[in-house]
Amino acid sequence: MPHLDFATQFIETVYHRHIAQIEALPPFFSWRGLYRVHDTQGSIWILRLLNVPSVVDSLTQIAELLQWLEQHHYVAPRLALTHNHQVVGFLNGWGSLLLSYIDGAVLNVHSTDFAHLGFTLGQLHMMPLPNAGRVPRSRCDPVLLQTQTARQLAAGNNRVAPCFQPLLKTLRDSLNVCISQNDPLCLTHGDCWYKNAIKTRDGTVVLIDWDCAGIGLPILDVGYLLLTAHYDLTQPLQITPDTQKILAILQGYQRARRISETEWAQMQSALQCILALQVGEHVAEQPLIASDDVFLQKVQIRMVASIEIAQIAQQAIV
Q: Cys-Cys crosslink for 45: which of 37, 60, 78, 304, Cβ 3.0 to 4.6 Å?
């Protein structure tokens, strides 16, 4: 993560804003920085710095999507332009987005606001698709899952310990169920879970962290939320499906958008598709994966939970 001095220089040089206070926020990576910035005018911002190939193109897609959401009155972090009216800042190889700070409380696994989060997600899925050709593909995009994730899983099958090979096969089967359907696409968040949701003072739940957003299958967003809503980070190897939480998410979601019969039938596969994406990325990064791989052990536990969560959801069609 860049030093605070560089972040300060970035704000003052690229955005012509004077800083009263700045603090670095986790998680910390050498190639990415996240900062909460108080300017001298009393406004609070989130500065996102990124140093990766094609950084301007990557950030421009996110910036333009956030602008589109603002123009269509969907509540999300608001983009600030650079001093020369660009959506993305650039300095010394680093790209940036400067976003409005969403003031409120981050949801947690014990939150009573999952119905509100479901409703917020349903509203997003009801937005019209932008006409612009630069709208990115999200992690919920069936083309991405087919061309990248399915290939990663197939290529990694011989590099994982035999005890994990049935897991990879099940994940490939779940992918095939989802990508074989011709369901309509919509705007999806791609990383919709409680750590990316903030309850504001007026009771609205707002989604943040739009890095994975774009066009995709809405049921994959729903499945991801249903599964991750049960992630207790203090007990990473334990998941207990919560019927009331599942119902709250589905009831909130369907206040904005009805889940189709085809999507209900895909629910278990939808819950497992994002796990497939994560496992695909994991095996692609490892030359060999032994039987004591902690990440895949966690995924196995989540796979078992996904079956019960899907059954509860399907039995409680609302």
A: 37
